[in-house]
Specification:
Two copies of one chain form a homodimer. Chain A is an alpha+beta fold. Chain A contains 13 helices and ten strands. In chain A, a hairpin with a 2-residue loop joins β9 and β10. The relative contact order of chain A is 0.13. Chain A binds a DNA duplex through α3.
Chain lengths: 346, 346
DNA sequence: GTTAGCACTCTATCCTGTCGAGTGCTAAAC
DNA sequence: GTTTAGCACTCGACAGGATAGAGTGCTAAC
């Protein structure tokens, strides 16, 4: 379904105006502010058509028009200028990244902070999925008092460690041997494979210490489950309170409750994960999650070596500045992919 | 300043009623609901006195009375029953703790969750301060690719590790030797001391590797600074939205912005830290932090071996159910002190 | 010292009328 | 055939006024 040029112009004008004012847009306003070269009456006719086609809606008889979900969708798909940020803006954003951070979590938090600041909406991100990255090193470090530390290091530099109790039957030499066996068998494998297949093999070799080994393996599994990918980061949730559509305390509560749930955020971010590239825009009811009828999300994935490993996004009211946010999200993922290289040790 | 018995009863009735209804309380209401054995007219006289003394206030001429900060203070100090929770309630709370958790952070988060659920207010906690706990073990674990892992274990079971780059000049044997020296010199010392004094001593002994040692020491320092005590936990912030005093979106925003800042929470929690024992109640303007005029906080400390190491608290409107919250906070810290013993390995 | 009664005050609420923005329709102009 | 001007109409926002009700303070009687 495609609209003729003038209808497009009218729709675009309505959306732009509504995005900036949050007030229903009347025919006179458009005629005055946007130079279409026709009178309000003509615009009224066009608006009546657009309404019939479902692109705009009227809150009540004597009010102006407001874009419908369908209208926004048409705008995003066909009308919006997909511009890159200008030099000035890019530089300004990059300045935010000037403080060096060591940890992936910190990078994502910083990214979020910057995104929410620059968009004035709320932003979110998932940690990188390292299931496909490989184990560089596993080591059992003996401590006193019958305790030991299990240390996992992956090739992207992620380190996880955990304290465990040792059974009395195990001594330091055993521990070293177990370390060796585990390293020999597991090193270089990706984490997913470790979980799936190789457990049996080590089981056999370490049958003598099976009891202890069970505990250690549980631990590794647990550690892997606690992977970065399960972490979800959120920033600028309170920006939502600045939006006039959230003047109602109940709406605020519903929305913030949703945003508090990692599960919900993850679902939103993962939906976009399927796409290899580019930016995903979901508008209002297009979300699978209940309770986001009044919101739109703009998400995109970031990559390492061309492989998608996580995503970031912005959530705002359906009356969102799509053009600006798309540019920012797109730029952020590009930059994030760049940054992630530093964490991925070849 | 102490009030006569009947004035106390009237004040108590006003506060109890206002706490539960959030509406200004009239003389008739008190005469009907609270059995003082006198007529509304008499109560009106008492109320006029109480107002003159500053314990209650009148929003406008023809409205009932509302407790003032001073009224709440008198209530908390003199009128409130300091009861323990009953068996039923204690059991119900303990049930929440039935899921075993391994990490201190998780314990505090769980504590917060339970506190906010049971009080319907917002709860907060600081992580334990382990500056005075001692180092059990420090180890440099060599990995491939010129990297090593620095692992710190303290006597309370806290484990911190970090990946570092090794200079080319260092080999595995050196590393082991450095580990040994560090352990010999540092083991058993409390973390504060390590930071302060002993650095020079090791410097001398390891002068050959001074360059590397600087890096490792920086790291240890950094790790120590990242101590649990700096972490602040928060739960149930959205409960505030259920309070009628926060029907106004601007108030909500101001408050939630405050609660977002770790610095603010820490300040509130640390104020109470000075007290050895017992529960601290701060009402409205008594807070040092700006912007908490409409809130009260109830905080208490938890201990290990009789030493205060952290605190938890609840924040709600000044019209808060002090009696209930004090009991809960008090019980939580008692239980928390108990739980913490498990993390403190003798 | 306590209470009943009463006049008074103030807010919340409802109703009403007015204003203005915006529309849809029609007929005239292009 | 398309565009425009004109006009009647609709509806929400807002202000003003009337009303009800909760609560008070005061006074006089008990």
């Amino acid at each position: 379904m495609t609209l003729d040029e003038r209808k497009e112009k009218v729709l675009q004008a309505i959306i732009k105006d509504y995005i900036s004012t949050a007030e229903p847009v009347g025919s006179r306003t458009i005629a005055k502010k946007y130079d279409l070269g026709v009178s309000p009456a003509t615009i009224r006719n066009e608006m009546a058509d657009l309404e019939e086609l479902g692109y705009i809606e009227q809150p009540h008889t004597s009010a102006g028009r407001v874009p419908s979900e369908r209208g926004y969708r048409y705008y995003v798909d066909c009308l919006m200028n997909k511009t890159r940020l200008n030099q000035e803006e890019e530089r300004s954003i990059l300045k935010g990244f000037s403080t060096k951070v060591q940890e992936i979590a910190a990078v994502l938090q910083l990214t979020n902070k910057i995104m929410s600041d620059f968009t004035s909406y709320t932003s979110m991100a998932t940690g990188p999925n390292f299931k496909r990255s490989s184990l560089r090193h596993v080591q059992l470090v003996p401590l006193d008092h019958g305790k030991a530390l299990v240390v996992l290091v992956t090739d992207n530099g992620m380190v996880q460690s955990k304290l465990i109790d040792l059974p009395n039957t195990i001594n330091d030499v055993d521990l070293q041997k177990i370390s060796q066996v585990m390293n020999a068998k597991l090193q270089g494998l990706n984490l997913e494979d470790i979980k799936q297949t190789l457990i049996r093999e080590i089981y056999f070799e370490l049958s003598k210490h099976r009891h202890f080994f069970d505990a250690a393996m549980d631990l590794i599994q647990e550690t892997l489950n606690l992977n970065q990918e399960d972490k979800v980061y959120l920033a600028g949730a309170l920006n939502m309170l600045n939006q006039p559509e959230f003047r109602d305390i109940h709406k605020v509560k519903t929305l913030l409750s949703l945003l508090e749930q990692d599960k919900v955020l993850k679902e939103i971010l993962i939906e976009s994960n399927t796409r290899e590239d580019g930016v995903t825009v979901k508008i209002g009811g297009e979300h699978k999650v209940e309770g986001l009828q009044d919101c739109s999300t703009i998400t995109a994935t970031y990559q390492i070596n061309g492989r998608v490993i996580g995503s970031v996004g912005v959530i705002g009211p359906t009356r969102m500045d799509y053009e600006k946010v798309v540019s920012i999200v797109e730029f952020m993922t590009r930059h994030l992919s760049q940054l992630m290289k530093d964490f991925y040790v070849r």
